[in-house]
Amino acid sequence: MRRRSPTSQSFDDSMEKGQGKNHQPRVCLLASLSGLFWFLLLYFHFVILGGNHVHDSPNLDPLSLNKQSNPNPMNRATIRNAKVEMDNNDLVLKSKPLKKNVQPTPVVVRPVSSDNSSRRDPESYSFMRALRTVENKSDPCGGRYIYVHDLPPRFNEDMLKECRTLSPWTNFCKFTANAGLGPQMENAEGVFSNTGWYATNQFAVDVIFGNRMKQYECLTNDSSLAAAIFVPFYAGFDIARYLWGYNVTTRDAASLDLVDWLQKRPEWNIMGGKDHFLVAGRITWDFRRLSDSDSDWGNKLLFLPAGRNMSMLVVESSPWNANDFGIPYPTYFHPAKDAEVFTWQDRMRKLERKWLFCFAGGPRPGNPKSIRGQIIDQCKQSKACKLLKCGQSGESKCHSPSSIMKMFQSSLFCLQPQGDSYTRRSAFDAMLAGCIPVFFHPASAYTQYTWHLPKNYSAYSVFISENDVRKKNISIEEMLNQIPPEKVKEMREAVISMIPRLIYADPRSKLETLKDAFDVAVDAVINRVTRLRKDIIEDRKYDNYIEELSWKYSLLDEGQTELAAHEWDPFFEKPKDGSADSDNSSAEAAKNSWKNEQGQQ
């Protein structure tokens, strides 16, 4: 017999003792208790529980509920709906296949707040689906998908139709031929290979990269799968039209138009553009105008808030800014097959190099910091140096690709001082010829092309401080002669082995096993965006990041976060007395670069 509680027993006893008396008070009491019970029950249901009504909660992106990646990006993704259950005060989402031809109803869920953590549920991020594609081992494109914005033609193709306006001195139309490679070159002197060589303009990366992207094997029409988003805006061609004789309104027009177009796209809102990237085949200073004065240089694309969020790939980046990244200048060699690369590498290994060092370039008498004059003097005085002195004359051999490449192929070391700005196309032509580059400023290569060049710069190059040349007048020839022959051989082999990642393959084809400069850059962008996304999920913030020292961060090893004093600090210090602002000097260098563009130095 089940034992009753003391409370229930005393209540029954009182009822028994009251039998035979008037039942009216008891009926009233029971009715009152019953009414109170139902009132409390209804109050609890509609008021207490009603505060968590599902329709009052914010929407979660439906993509965050689908954890399965789509191996075929061109097909519509499998759609699933969600069934919400309560389990220990947590929301548990269970997926259930929809019936055929039934449209899914967006599931609305109020996130459960936690006093222990303010971190957002990872499943609420729209890019989670893209991150998960890497988990699909049967998908060769997992984690590598690129979505390309379908821009209006005014941002790219229309510029090619108006190619005569792209340079005030040159008919640029010939350089846009052959998918941006320029006219094919003859091999009368036997300097080149029989195929794959073109008279490529050094500023043609916009169209070359854009056409290579069209052949990328992991393009997708589904932006939710994309590891990164490409913006096919010909930024370099755009600014080239208006650098001379146009006001800032004209120079900024296309950039502002582009930003306005992008910010209206749903893809932009996912990360505020931080997963977007674009390419400009010019130096960064053409896009970093410091004021709105018509006399100031370039446009302000990279200073726009939206421009600062995107990653911009340029042939020369800023050491003091974090939103641009250096990629190689195009060379004359654009192979269509792996075999063409291997054949060229073998040929460079077997060449007899009779010159210890060489230099192709002209002096910069208007720049007191330039060491070109001293380099030219040292080369003239040495019997071990070959010189191609460049000038404004159209007859200069510096304008002849065959003359330049022939000299590089016959030299052990190729001197690469600063040009009008930090970098030179010549450095990549030299390495293509198997010539060991000699740099005089770290921003000419080491802090520029960190995606494409090894961090161990001494393995493939020689560094001689320009300060030592300028102030101490050290002998370049003596320094190079001190390097043991076996070490020289190792360095040359390192240079030759790097050739595939420094060249842009023919955009109309695809190398079979080798990765070219395009592939290396795309992989690096994807890795960068992936890290940004993981930082967002983990709520990692870098409050102590110093953008002005961005050149230093690019040299850190994986996992390193703290900066320390560096031997190159003096090269990147901005003057504290305000006598010469580095950005203004760089803008002046960009202007001088344009003045000297008529002579391909």
TrEMBL record:
Residue ranges with Basic and acidic residues bias: 567-579
Subcellular location: Golgi apparatus membrane
Bias (Polar residues) ranges: 1-12
Single GO molecular function: glycosyltransferase activity
InterPro entries membership: Exostosin (IPR004263), Exostosin_GT47 (IPR040911)
Compositionally biased intervals (Low complexity): 581-593
Membrane topology term: Single-pass type II membrane protein
Pfam family, one: Exostosin_GT47
Main location: Golgi
Membership in a protein family: Belongs to the glycosyltransferase 47 family.
Name the record gives this protein: Xyloglucan galactosyltransferase MUR3
Organism: Solanum pennellii
Lineage of the organism: Eukaryota, Viridiplantae, Streptophyta, Embryophyta, Tracheophyta
